[in-house]
Amino acid sequence: MDANLLKVENYRGKFVINEAYQPIAKALCVKFPELKHIPVDSILFLDLTEAKGVTGNKIKNAQISKMPDKWHEIIYQLIGKRFMYYMEFFKRNTGHMSQEQIILLIYHELRHIGGDGDLNHHDIEEWANMYHKLGVDWSVTKRKLPDLLDAEVDWDSIKQTNLFTFPVK
Fold first, then answer.
1. What is the pLDDT of residues 86-107, one digit of tens each?
2. Which of 156, 155, 162 is CA-nearest to residue 136?
3. Are the beta carbons of 145 and 98 closer than 8 angstroms?
4. How far apart are CA 111 and CA 125, in angstroms?
5. Which positions ≥6 away from 135 have C-beta within 8 Å?
6. How far is CA 22 from CA 10, 44, 115, 153, in A?
7. Which of 34, 94, 38 is nearest to 62 (CA)?
8. CA of 138: how far to CAs of 4, 127, 162, in Å?
9. Rounded-to-integer distance, Cα 160 and Cα 132, Å
10. CA 79, CA 89: separation in Å to the nearest integer?
C-alpha cells in the first residue's frame, strides 16, 4: 500500500480535520478575557465539504457542539487525545469569507462555550452584539472588517457605521 494514501492532507472526504483554525482560536482566547476559560486544545476543528449548513430557512456558517460520549471514547482509543467539543465550518457557506470574517466567526462560535463548559445557545443579546459591532451583513460580503487579532483592535471599541444618517435637530 502506498504510504501517501494514509496521509491526512490527501484525504478529500465530507468531514476534513482543519487544524489551521486552532491557532486563531488560541490567539482569541489569549486576547479576550471572556474566552480565557476555553480549552482550545479540546476542540476538534472540522470543515464540512458537502453539507449545505441550512436549517429551515437559516443558513449556518459554523457551529460548535459537544463531542458525543461515543466519539469522545473512540477518538481517545485511536489517538490518545480527548476532545470535549467540535467546531464545524460549512465550506459551501464560508469559502468566500476573508480572513477577518473567519476570525470573527471563530470568535462568535467560541463565545458559545460558557464558563461551566456548557454550550450557550444563540440569544437576542448575542445577535444584537454582532449586529451592532459588525452590521447585519458581516458574513456575506467582502467589505472591510476589523481583524480581531490585531493588537489595537478591541471588541468593545468596534462600532458599525450606520446605514442611514439622520439630521440632528
1. 999 998 888 888 888 889 899 9
2. 162
3. yes
4. 12
5. 160, 161, 163
6. 20, 8, 19, 20
7. 94
8. 40, 12, 13
9. 6
10. 23
Q: CA 147 to CA 2: how far, in whole Å? A: 42
Residue among 71, 101, 100 nearest 83 (CA)? 71
DSSP at 16: E
Q: Using only the alpha carbons of the chain, give its radius of gyration.
A: 18
**Which three cell numbers, joined as nine digits, stand for 154?**
478591541
Determine if the pTM surpasses 0.90.
no
Angle at 95 between CA 156 and CA 25, to 5 degrees: 40
Residue by residue, DSSP assigns 60-80 as: -SEEEEEPPHHHHHHHHHHHS
Tens-digit pLDDT profile for residues 17-63: 999 999 999 999 999 998 999 999 999 999 998 877 777 777 788 99
Question: In which residue are the cell numbers 460520549 written?
Answer: 69
- Of 149, 127, 151, 115, nearest to 23 by C-alpha is 149
Residue 65's region, left for phi above 0, alpha for psi from -120 to 50, else beta, is beta
Amino acid at 50: E
